[in-house]
User: Which sequence fits this backbone?
């Protein structure tokens, strides 16, 4: 396990690292998740040529620290992720990011272009949304006030998401989880979708079979490859790791 101090409080970001050639690949988890359980099978898959791979946990999630004074906005997550990558000696990485992590990774690529050479989003959040509906990535968390969520609202979310998602969500800091969900619902300015469309690097958006993202035609016009992964739901890397690894191998191969 590796770590780096990424916040003025002394909070450390931690990651599991697989050795290999440069440039590195950076895997970023979604809301209430942690990178190693979601990505380990794919990062070590025989279809992928060996590259240095960082399976990294954002502050407040998984094995990383959970500073109370951190804002946990998408922009703040992108800033601390950038700090962690710099301290890890990462530049020009291929960033593979799921759901909420895809929004963070897009902000990272827009604000810290030297760190990201290629961006692969996995059913990522591109737009703000009202906090009340229950939907993948939101789980209704943002419908609670922060103190209400910490005092017991999290139990409703636990019962709603089920044991699989809760297995990693229970590792998250409650305030960090709530603040991140609120920021995800609020979105960024410009929006993540607008940031993604304006990036000058190779980009791809992977989505479950039969569930093409809103505005797919406009994404393609902006140069984003929109690719369907068969026999998968929102957690594509867990539902069909073979197809996910095969798609990654094609996207990560040398060339445009």
Assistant:
């Amino acid at each position: 396990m590796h770590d780096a101090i990424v916040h003025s409080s002394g909070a450390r970001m931690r990651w599991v690292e697989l050795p290999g050639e440069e440039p590195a690949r950076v895997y970023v988890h979604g809301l209430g998740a942690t990178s190693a359980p979601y990505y380990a099978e794919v990062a070590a898959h025989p279809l992928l040529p060996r590259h240095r791979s960082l399976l990294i946990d954002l502050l407040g999630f998984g094995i990383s620290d959970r500073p109370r004074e951190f804002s946990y906005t998408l922009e703040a997550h992108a800033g601390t992720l950038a700090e962690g990558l710099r301290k890890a000696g990462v530049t020009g990485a291929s960033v593979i990011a799921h759901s909420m992590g895809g929004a963070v990774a897009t902000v990272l690529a827009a604000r810290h272009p030297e760190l990201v050479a290629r961006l692969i989003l996995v059913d990522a959040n591109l737009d703000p949304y009202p906090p009340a509906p229950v939907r993948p990535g939101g789980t209704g968390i943002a419908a609670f006030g922060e103190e209400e969520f910490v005092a017991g609202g999290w139990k409703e979310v636990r019962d709603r998401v089920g044991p699989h998602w809760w297995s990693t969500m229970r590792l998250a800091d409650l305030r960090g989880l709530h603040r991140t969900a609120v920021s995800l619902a609020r979105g960024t300015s410009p929006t993540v979708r607008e940031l993604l469309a304006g990036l000058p690097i190779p980009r791809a958006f992977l989505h479950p079979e039969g569930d093409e993202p809103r505005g797919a035609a406009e994404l393609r016009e902006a140069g984003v490859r929109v690719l369907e992964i068969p026999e998968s739901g929102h957690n594509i890397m867990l539902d069909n790791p073979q197809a996910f690894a095969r798609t990654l191998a094609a996207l990560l191969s040398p060339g445009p």
In short: The longest strand covers residues 21-28.
